[in-house]
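Hello forum,

I keep getting stuck at the same step: I have a sequence, I want structure tokens, and every attempt I make locally crashes halfway through. Rather than fight my setup again tonight, could one of you with a working pipeline run this one for me? It's a single chain of 105 residues.
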Amino acid sequence: MVDNISSLPPKRLDVARNEATKSTDALRESRAAEASARTEDTKATSHSASNSLVDRAKAAAHEAPEIDRQKVDDIKLAIARGEFQVNPKAVAQAFVSMTLNATRA
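Reply #2:
Ran it on my machine without issues. Output:
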């Protein structure tokens, strides 16, 4: 059995290193390609999620009631004159309500 081993031609060390380097390079290229594909998939998913959010925002804007500009101007004027009293408790409750409704949607 030992005689069979000695009959094999010796493999040059530089050839073995070269083959190992090629294998390592191929593995790195494969991993880089996989990472690039995952990045592209993530970008596509993120882009579609972003579009979905934009679409929902547009739909909400279209469904919202018209803004009464005259009423807004009257309130601004009353605030500037000191004639409009803000109820902080009512404002806080409105914000909490809006936040709760937004998280349920």
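The chain is about 85% helix and 0% strand. If your local run keeps crashing, start a new thread with the error log.
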